[in-house]
Amino acid sequence: MVSTTERHKHDAPEPRRGRGRRGSGGRRRRPRTPRHTPGDIVRGVVRTIGEILLTAGLLMLFYASYEVYGGQWETEREQEELAQGLEEVWAAQEEEESEPGPESEPLPGSADSRLYLPSLDLDWVVVNGTTPQDILNSPGHYTEYDSEPGVAGNYSVAAHRTPGLFWDIDQLEDGDVMVLEDAENFYTYEVFEEQTVLPTDVWVIEPDPFDDASDEEPERSLITLTTCAPKLNNTHRLIVWAELTETTPKSEGMPESIAHMAPDAEEDEE
Predict the structure, then answer these.
(1) Helices (H), 26-169
(2) What is the mean pLDDT of the chain?
(3) What is the CATH number of the domain that holds 112?
(4) What's the pTM value of the predicted model, to 2 decimals?
(5) Structural domain tally of the chain?
């Protein structure tokens, strides 16, 4: 027989594991908070500084890209307005069959001519004057000397070294052509020389910069392009010269060299 005492021992429930510790201590131990070592702190600071520098670098890159390329949109918009105004002036002159008198002077900032660089597939309306405001979004015609397209002298033009303006004129080579357009004619010039000079070398825009006897009337008809060099800097000036080789009346249509740049040609391609 099993005694009552032994039966109670067998029937009693077994104690659950883990209760002994909780019962003895009353509370569980909290997990220890990891301590930051000096190395952890240094790595955190370096990581934070790196993220700040990376963000600043990206912002500077975006700003530089806008400075270089963002202005091109404004240039294109202003060129469209100038082109429309120039066509209206030329149309009015043709209807009236009159030209400004010899004593009249071009207004600063007003449209003067159109310049084509077919090898670069670029063209612009050229305004009178080379002040910062004049050439903000257009090439500007130097007015220090009397000069007109197609006549003896030096028709000099300045523009910023930015996309949309004279960014790529360093790609012009000897034999490439430039075309100037006025109310009556197209004037074709051929590139024959390029130089990089100092900003103080203003002789480059004289009536005949290759003739020391500058007091005499010039015999050649030249066009001179000037811009900053190198790109994104203004320590020097890049100069490209071209000489007149052909005059084409507008009644004969555009010269073959720029026929692909005519507005109707662009519409046919579309």
Answers:
(1) 38-65, 71-96
(2) 82
(3) 2.40.260.10
(4) 0.71
(5) 1
